[in-house]
Amino acid sequence: MSRSLYKGPYVDEKLLKKVLSKKSREAGTIKTWARRSQISPEMVGYTFGVHNGKDHIDVFVSEEMVGHRLGEFSPTTKFVRHGGQMQKGLEAKKKEGEIAAAKAAKAVATPAKKK
User: pTM for this one?
Assistant: First the structure.
């Protein structure tokens, strides 16, 4: 459910105070645990270290992010690849194909010298 319009967007007070007290060039990373805070226009140009439950992930805020939550850009789960043994075989074949293509391109780019 979205927040009611008469309440306005939620931005953590401590986080907003940190943003307003620093300049974007010298700020470095601003660590925060406030994943639920909405990104406001004042935050554009800053880098936030958003906590994902284990460590802080750096998020550089751009204009397109205004209105979204900080937590949307710091995933809390790590994707584990599906497929098992069959997937490994397919990936190995793909990697071998890429290596062969790179060798062929290199051979064409540097012609063999004649004696």
Answer: 0.64
